[in-house]
Design a protein that fits this description.
The chain is mainly alpha-helical. 52% of the residues lie in helices and 5% in strands. The strands form four sheets. Strands 4-6-7 form a three-stranded antiparallel sheet. A two-stranded parallel sheet has the order 1-2. A two-stranded antiparallel sheet has the order 3-5. Strand 1, helix 3 and strand 2 form a beta-alpha-beta unit. Helix 6 runs antiparallel to helix 7 and helix 16 runs antiparallel to helix 17. The radius of gyration is 27 Å and the shape is elongated.
Amino acid sequence: MRNKFLNNQPLQKSTGNKSYSSLYNQSLKVKTAPSIDNNFFIRKSQSAQKSSSIVVGEHNLTLTQVAEVAKLGAPVTLTKRLDICQGIQDSCNYITNAVETGKSIYGVTTGFGGMGNTAISCEDAAALQENLIWFLKTGAGNRLPIADVRAAMLLRMNSHTKGASGIRYELIQRMAIFLNEGITPHVYDLGSIGASGDLVPLAHITGALLGLDPAFTVDFKGTEISAIEALNRLKLPTLSLCAKEGLAMVNGTSVMTGIAANCVNDAHSLFSVAIATHALMIQALGGTNQSFHPFIHGLKPHPGQVWVAEQMVNLLSGSYLSCDELNGDNHFDGCDLIQDRYSIRCLPQYLGPVVDGLWDIAGQIETEINSVTDNPLIDAKCQSSYHGGNFLGQYVGVGMDRLRYLIGLIAKHLDVQIALLVTPEFNGGLPASLVGNTQRKVNMGLKGLQIAGNSIMPLLTFYGNSLADRFPTHAEQFNQNINSQGFGSANLTRTSINLFRQYLAIALIFAVQAVEQKNYLLFGNYDVEKNLSPATKVLYNKVRELLGKPVSKEKSLIWDDCEQSLDIYISLIVDDLSAPGQISQAVSNIFAELMNEK
């Protein structure tokens, strides 16, 4: 630890990206970092900014819009644009004509999958579709979260507006009604291999939309009732399927992609909190900002690395706890290390690939959101239909596998910082295990909290193992002999994110306790507000406020072990991170930049 910065001025406040870029350009005289292709960012659409209702079918949906509908209950409106409505109707007309003329089309005039060699008569065309829903009603396990099912319905709507699926406007509109009226079909987290899309989960949704049978149940504004009862309450009729419509509804990646979209949004939000938590920890350890100088990262200009370095300079700007060495000075007292340990010094190089990965995954999931993923696909203009495989959720499966791996890396890094904070040999004079009241000899500080964190971090790295490469080659009579496991991977990623919230809550408690003890070490009191960087002070205050603990000069957050229940603290922070609430709001600028919405 280096204390020589006490006689220096704090970091000058950053004026944002422009000042960082200016410093970068003026000091380097080397080629600037390449700009990142906007395709890898999530962009908030103009319609989402200006309208409270999200119009489906006219423009590509963004990840942000999916979250607004899925989690915040934003209303949706199915487009009434004549050209789009006509395209939807034209695809239906094509199917009607194909059935009447006996044209051979998979799943319309034939059976399904490995039984696709079975001819279906015109008279049985509708019955084939209804039977499809029944034999696929095989979901097992636990019910999916409401937000994930809402996301799935939104994405299925969006896919069908492209006019390539042969499904009636009325059935697409039924999904909009369910979303706006708070009706969510009960869907289960086991049953899809992500090959022919999410057949089983989408069958549960479809049966509920139709009111096919009382066995299809829904959540109606918090109450469990049958789908038929929900339709009765809204004075809506049950619906019957026409040719192709059952297949169009169940044959696609909408459920796994809906889950993935929610996971990607959550991951960006939690990463924004994590990087700000690092900034608090670096201040507690008396780290330097020199390792984040743009000169360094301009010489290795990976976009994510450059972005992380810029964020760290801004997050530490104005701090009286960390070292300001951006001018190139290297203070050495002959005792402490002249440079920070790797977990601080290499932070941009470590987290840069994480950021690049987040951007890459987000771009792929957003493409999937706006894709047509059923089969066969209809080109009504050319009066043709095509057998293909857009239903294979490989991008989702591989992307979610990768996201879990990245979450494990983020947690592992925070775990290293916590280990430094609690160890006197490395923490620059802070109490062992960050004990608050050192006069009370029985106090053990955050020892138990670290153990709790140690129990979570290995799980997160374990969940980072891939699932997409593990699939049954014999699935469905060897028809679905490659499959993405995208649905399973997306569900595992939700589990990983929920675990990471727990871990991040623990890390935040460590960060708050540590900066207060650092302040006491340097200034003789625990009121760290005026010495923290302005950017991290906001996060610090939100955590204190959330825990109901006003800042005190006399005591750190954790003083005597018996004065609080740390499990309750963890729970309060996790609930806030899940909302997201005050803590996420404190890092909203980072989140906006990460999502490229600023």
